[in-house]
Design brief:
About 30% of the residues lie in helices and about 30% in strands. It has three helices and eight strands. Strands 6-7-5-8 form a four-stranded antiparallel beta sheet.
Length: about 130
Amino acid sequence: MTTENGVTADTTDTAGPTGPTDSSVTFINVFEIAADELDAFVEKWEQRARLMRDKPGFIDSRMHRARSSDSRFQLVNVSHWESQAAWEAATADPDFASRTRAAREETKQPVTPNPAVYDVVVELTAP
């Protein structure tokens, strides 16, 4: 733990030279999508997210919507998984992959997802 200016940061190295350890992970996916396609996309996303909810290792998931239609990323999904292996197994599900592909193809304008798995390097909590 490091403390600087009253901020506590957990700088524990969770990724070794060969990749992440088997600790919990955060999956973040930011979407570039036309503002007029948001409601339909979110509805379909919720259906896909329900598939993930029942997968082993799933902890939680939240979809965030930008308050401004001028934001580059209109939607941000943040999900937590018990391990990277659990996340990989869940996203390898053929039904999930098929629905994800269809969701991108059903929009009039391209939807650009930007998915990645992250480890927490700094965590702040209220005093």
